[in-house]
Amino acid sequence: MTVPFSLSARASQTHDQPISYFMQQAVENPNLISLAAGLVDPGSLPAAEVRAVMDEMLSDPVTAQAALQYGTTHGYAPLREKILARAMALDAIKARDVALDADDVIVTTGSQQLLYMICELLLDPGDIVITEAPSYFVYHGTLTSLGVRTLQVPMDEQGMDTGLLEELLMRLEKAGDLQRVKLIYTIDYFQNPTGLTLSMPRRQHLMDLVRRFSKKQRIFVLEDAAYRELRFNGLDVPSLKSLDEDNAHVILAMTFSKPMAPGLKTGYGLLPSELVAPLLRFKGNHDFGSSNLAQHLLDRLLANGAYERHVEHLREVYREKRDTILDALAEEFAGAEGIKWTEPEGGMYVWLTNAVETGPDSPFMKAALREGVLYVPGQFCYVNGENGALPKNEARLCYGVASLEQLPEAVRRLGRAARASGAGRGTRGESQPAGKSPHVVGAML
């Protein structure tokens, strides 16, 4: 007889990510076009550049041994210096302007490890994290597994509505819960899932709010800027980190996965100095340091200009794919009623608002699978509200992995699914540019 065992409380709070099923469907059905998983464009992966640098690095016994040996928990020092320099160059500032140096940079095993470790470091069960609505569902899973209370603030065309955030913080203060608010999480460039960007006035207001409401307990902002370098339209806006002049409130999380190659599995964070040592203790428990080989490789790609050239190439790749899917949506849903979408200025995502339910068991999803196209149901991007129902008529479309030839066909399949499920009849639907989002969601506070 097998002796029973029990899992930890955290294990019981950790559930399968919703995207796992959809990724499995994409793998098992070769005729299915996936607009679901947020994978990068496969044809753009920099195989030649990586091979050239790898050959150069491994052909010299000295550099080969350095790259193939254990590294440090903190990260390869020359790479951390280059990361800091590049982050500052994006904002056209000096590190001293925001009280940063290379010791405040930590290299991680993808940005997801950083997101998780920050939660481990700062949050206890029952603490409060505030996110956008909708937001990145993988991060929601992390918060759930840690027993954290997640509250969401609606978005509009300027990103998170910081006016509503202010109202939420005031209500929490009045209820005596302000000291439990530890973290505000925002994907502030070309957000996953909506493609929207936090405006400059909202950035300034957000920073004002975290300073104002950091009373008995400091509130940190976790700025997930994974897509920042993939801008192909519009004017850039400064990072929240650049507005954190005393390096006290903003944790900037970025990654090499989206602008270079996810197989390198390397992310990084720029942190308030007080968080560095305790976070490194957590990281030591995780892995004693991320892949040293990948860090040496990335250091060389940054040094020889290959990284910058690849980012420039990716901007053109994703601009063309964005234009292709938007043109296909406009053609397919001309004359449709209640179907709208965002027009991102960068990144990999379009947010579709449908006239019918889009959930995993909806007629629309079933029809889409029959037609051979896959999307992420928008309801996965919300947490269960403390009042109000979750929106169930939205969908995330990712144009990262599908080819230019596949994107119009994927949209045609969505159109057939919409008609089969009763959507898309009536007057002309209108696309929504980045300044005119169709989804002001108000039920999550």
* Alpha plus pi helix count: 14
Helix/strand class? alpha/beta
The main β sheet shows up as:
8 strands, mixed
Share of β-strand residues? 5-15%
Report the span from N to C terminus: 50 Å
Which geometry do the CA atoms define?
A: globular
Walk me through what this model shows.
The chain is α/β, with parallel strands linked by helices and 445 residues long. 40% of the residues lie in helices and 14% in strands. The protein contains 14 helices and 15 strands. It has helices at 9-12, 18-28, 47-59, 61-68, 77-91, 110-122, 137-145, 162-174, 200-213, 273-286, 292-303, 306-332, 363-371, 406-420; strands at residues 33-34, 105-108, 128-133, 149-156, 159-160, 181-186, 220-224, 250-255, 267-270, 340-343, 349-353, 373-374, 376-377, 394-398, 432-433. Strands 2-9-8-7-6-3-4-5 form an eight-stranded mixed sheet, with helices on both faces. Helix 7 (137-145) links the parallel strand 3 and strand 4. Residues 426-445 have low confidence and may be disordered.
Topology at a glance:
Blueprint lengths: L8 H4 L5 H11 L4 E2 L12 H13 L1 H8 L8 H15 L13 E4 L1 H13 L5 E6 L3 H9 L3 E8 L2 E2 L1 H13 L6 E6 L13 H14 L6 E5 L25 E6 L11 E4 L2 H14 L5 H12 L2 H27 L7 E4 L5 E5 L9 H9 L1 E2 L1 E2 L16 E5 L7 H15 L11 E2 L12
Parallel strand pairs: 1-12, 3-4, 3-6, 6-7, 7-8, 10-15
Antiparallel strand pairs: 2-9, 4-5, 8-9, 10-11, 11-14, 13-14
Helix pairs in contact: 3-11, 6-10, 8-9, 12-14, 13-14
Index terms:
single chain; 445 residues; alpha/beta; 8-stranded mixed beta sheet; 5-stranded mixed beta sheet; 14% strand; globular
